[in-house]
Amino acid sequence: MNRILIKNAVILDPESGRNEPGDILIADGVFSAVGGQICCEDAQVIDAAGLTAAPGLVDMHVHLRDPGFTEKEDILTGCRAAAAGGVTSLLCMPNTNPPVDTPETVRYIREKAEKADARVYVAAAITKGLKSEEINDLRALREAGAIALSDDGRPVVDSRLMGQAMRLAPSLHLKVASHCEDLFLSAGGKMNEGAVSEKLGVPGVPAAAEDCGTAREIALAAAYGVPVHICHVSTAASVALIRDAKRRGVPVTAETAPHYFALTEEELLRRDADYRMSPPLRTEKDRLAVIEGLRDGTIDTIATDHAPHTPQEKEDFLAAPNGSIGMETSLAAGITYLVHIGIITMAELISLMSTAPAKLLGLNAGTLQEMAPADLVLFDPEERWTVDVSRLHGKSRNAVFKGRELIGRVKMTVCRGKIVYRE
């Protein structure tokens, strides 16, 4: 029997409302006892004095690049990076090669992930080849093990197909997640359209490209009375659209990523392609609107949109592909830019990064309650550290928080009742 006894931690569990010192006993892959002083003679004892124990993070937006782009990342290395960031469950996106548009590819991911350091859930493609021309056999994808649908990396251009998928998904218990972008408006753009792009002489992506996509998905959800989840919200207008839709009872949920509440387009002045992603970093006004959306509940979850690329791909500022990595820094970024300055509480942050996404995806995760699966992150909420990309655990180095001092350090991660990361 594999037993782990965590002693003297601050137990933080938004699901139960627990935020108090105590011990946690893990046995046979579940939380056997939580709270108070626990004794167990045959357990591996972890002294967690000064540390916080929280449910393992649930990152509902990750690009593992496997199959097809394993020079950037693969399932095992991606989950190694996840574990180092306290992420114990993740939803991988379908823009691989081949795309995740067949039951065979879904099964390939799930089988390879059985040996990984995090639980991997699959978002299958809505359309064949991610081409927005023909909808996939959604039932077959669900039967193969997919739990969500998305063409992320690009939008479903055809509104009719998107509406069809949204209407079919609830009966199949699939979550539809939308990359909101008007490709006609964003065509050729490399960064946010505005003062910085003009200064650099670089083609821009207007905020309207995202906002038009967000408005369309809300309109479809309202018209058909079916849910939709909006990915990586980055603009003030999209936050306002989602807030209004929720007030009207439209079944819409949303996520943002740490770079959208921490950074702005000003980072692009250094002409470093690691700061180029889709949607792009926006203005200070947009950043503050995203923060307010997190504070008032308009935005339901924080995900990373972890998108690895090789250093060679990121060398050329204009030619580089979009995307940055983020699983190893997401918790610290949330503590640094949201909790430490008093915008939200630590319990609210853990809810945004664990409890809420688990509920949205229908996962048995995001809690420390007894008999729940033993997925846990143990972190020091006060430790300051500087992000050194040479010490990251995935294959790629395109981290937007590189060289920055962050607050909050993951010390240990437990997944499936086993220690998968320990500093």
Give the SSE layout.
Layout: E1 3-13, E2 18-27, E3 30-34, E4 44-47, E5 52-55, E6 57-62, H1 75-84, E7 87-92, H2 103-112, E8 119-124, H3 138-144, E9 148-149, H4 159-168, E10 175-178, H5 183-186, E11 191-192, H6 195-200, E12 204-205, H7 207-224, E13 228-230, H8 236-247, E14 252-256, H9 258-262, H10 284-296, E15 301-302, H11 330-339, H12 346-361, E16 376-386, E17 405-415, E18 418-422
Parallel strand pairs: 1-4, 1-5, 6-7, 7-8, 8-9, 9-10, 10-13, 11-12, 13-14, 14-15
Antiparallel strand pairs: 1-2, 2-3, 5-16, 16-17, 17-18
Helix pairs in contact: 2-3, 4-7, 7-8, 8-10
Give a quick summary of the entry.
By secondary structure, this protein is an alpha/beta fold. The chain is built from twelve helices and 18 strands. 29% of the residues lie in helices and 23% in strands.
